[in-house]
Amino acid sequence: MLRRGKEPGPPAKEAKTNDTRHARSILNEPRVHEVRAEIDESIDKINGKIQRAEQMKVHTMFVIGRRDMDADAVSVRIHGKGNLGAKARSEAIADILQPIRERRA
Length: 105
Description:
Layout: H1 12-32, H2 46-55, E1 60-63, H3 66-71, E2 73-78, E3 82-88, H4 89-104
Antiparallel strand pairs: 1-2, 2-3
């Protein structure tokens, strides 16, 4: 079934593979700088993943949706502050690395 105004996307399995590939490319950038990072690949819905990360007191979360992928951006959430909105991928990663570099100096 096609929805009006939307072009058909890739098959579900292919789309999931592309999403995972994109998420892993973002994941590798902080890891290169020895920043601990991981992907939540559970089958939970996004709200459940965010809630679990908040309970685990994860400081910074990148939420990557379809619009974020298209714009090469990430939605940033900070523990205790909530959603900070979408930022360019490079800007969001630089924001994480800056305080780490300052502490190491």
